[in-house]
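#struct-help
A.M.: can someone run this one for me? Single chain, 84 residues.
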Amino acid sequence: MGKSIATRIATRPVAGALMGQALAFVGQVVTAIKDRRQLTDLADCDDHQLSDIGITRDDLQVALSEPLWRDPTTALARRARKPS
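D.P.: on it. Structure tokens below:
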């Protein structure tokens, strides 16, 4: 019986590395989508509640405008650390 396609690809150094990078990218996008959903939940909070956790509505908008493959929480954390 022959080897599966995944096994044949994984045994080739370059193809295996490319597949690993592709899978890592897909994982990164899935994580970014989950985090984006959580940030949209924060958008339902009022400005006082957002202020209590150290962010502004503008911070949320900037974070949510990040490209889909980037984790928006990274941008939000970066903005939250900046002095006012």
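A.M.: thanks! The chain has a mean pLDDT of 82.
D.P.: also worth noting: Helices lie at 5-10, 13-42, 47-52, 57-64, 72-81.
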